[in-house]
Amino acid sequence: MNSVSIQDLGTIPFFAGLPDRLLGAVAKASVEKPYEKEKVVFLKGDLPKALFAVVSGTVRLACQSPKGEEKVIDLLGAGRVFGESALLLDSPYPCMAAATTPARLLQIDGRALLDLIDTSPPLMLRLAKNLSQGVVNAVRTIEDYRTLKPHGRLARFLLDGRDDAEEAHAPITLPATKHVFASLLGITPESLSRVIRDLAEAGVIENRGRNVSILDGRRLAALAC
Questions:
Q1: Helical H segments across 6-120, by residue range
Q2: Which residues are within 8 A (CB) of 54 and not within 5 positions of it... i.e. 6 or more apart?
Q3: What is the rounded radius of gyration, in angstroms, for the C-alpha atoms of the chain?
Q4: How far apart (Å, rounded) are the C-alpha atoms in residues 182 and 191?
Q5: Listed residues 94, 117, 145: the one ending a domain
Q6: What does pTM read for this prediction?
């Protein structure tokens, strides 16, 4: 575990722009921890003790189906914050979190963070916005599952990735193994392979390993509607 500086917190969008005095207090309550691939961050039902932020790598949030199959709810890359809902509600985590790749996480002590929230409206507002964005994302995911076929779900993911990319034509790196990524999209790994092959053969995308380049954004956007 490593100590955390104000500069470290500043690299996380959730904390960027907050007053240095507040960041200093958060830094004192934080540690940076490495996680090997597949190491569990917390299990469903664990009591919340911290807020987490991804410094590097990818973390997945997931639940198990009645058959014991893992269903991926979200994949969190660098800069994402998670665990805030259980912390604020003082209730057990509703899902598990695990490192999908080797990762480094900031772990902010929950009790200290809640004390800071009591006297810091800007920090409370950040948490409220993060929770609200989570609700928006969840509603959109449910809508996609109900209205989009597998081709459309992959198209939506790729278009969102293009919007987030620093370079307009940069390849989009799929965030996890085929099995995990397919679970995120709500399809089987076999269906994901078929969808990627269909779009590549149609000249809509180019696929090289886990890197995907969009060749025809207009046709891809039509699939995502």
A1: 6-10, 20-28, 84-89, 110-118
A2: 76, 77, 78, 79, 80, 81, 82, 103, 104, 105
A3: 19
A4: 8
A5: 145
A6: 0.85
User: Residue 171: what are its φ and ψ, rounded to 5°?
Assistant: -60, 150
User: Each residue of 63-122: pLDDT tens digit?
Assistant: 987 777 889 999 999 999 999 999 999 999 999 999 999 999 999 999 999 999 999 999
Shared domain check, 99 and 206: no
Question: Cα dihedral sign for 110, 94, 155, 67?
Answer: positive
pLDDT in tens, 114-168: 999 999 999 999 999 989 998 898 888 888 888 899 999 999 999 987 766 545 5
Distance of alpha carbon 198 from alpha carbon 216, whole angstroms: 14
* Residue 219 to residue 205: CA distance in whole angstroms: 10
Please say which residue of 120, 145, 170 terminates a domain.
145
The CATH number given to whatever domain includes residue 208 is: 1.10.10.10
* 211 token code pair: 């890197």
Distance, CA of 127 to chain centre: 16
Judgement on whether residues 108 and 176 belong to the same structural domain of the protein: no
Whether 187 and 219 share a structural domain:
yes
User: CB neighbours of 49 closer than 8 A, spacing ≥ 6?
Assistant: 109, 110, 111
Number of folded domains that form the chain: 2
Q: Are residues 172 and 141 in the same domain?
A: no
